[in-house]
Amino acid sequence: MIKKVIGGYILGLTHNIKSINKSVIPKEGPVIIYSNHVSKYDHLLIGLFFKRKLYYVKGITNESEVLSSLKDGKAVLIFGALNKNYYSYFSTTDISVTSYPATIIPCAITGDYKFGKDLTVTFGDKLDLNGMSNSEIKTYLEEKVKELMLGRK
Questions:
Q1: What is the three-class DSSP state of 27?
Q2: pLDDT tens per residue, range 123-138
Q3: What 3-state DSSP class applies to 111?
């Protein structure tokens, strides 16, 4: 919590931060935020818009830990989509989002972390991934995040 407060304070002093569509974030219950990854500060930036603790997945992780967190009703951030150049570097097959009983929300970070620049976090609408294979989910999530990055909802 202290890290979030200090990080948020510093980001707020040095950047113009805004969010789009943050009302889609559930106040309770299991949720996966599936985002692009721009900087080592992304988790702090996205966490600013959560009233509860946001757990984030660093690279490849133990899938059972993620599943356990979601079963406990926690919010989990997965950097699994695209970087700022739309290059995908992380496979959703490494962490199978289909096995999670959670709301899944795409997210995009746009802007620049350079001093004084704008940073925007855009949350997409809740996704329904039922009936999709892991490869279809990977493609679909990346498309949704890219749409948000390009300013389309």
A1: coil
A2: 999 998 878 877 788 7
A3: strand
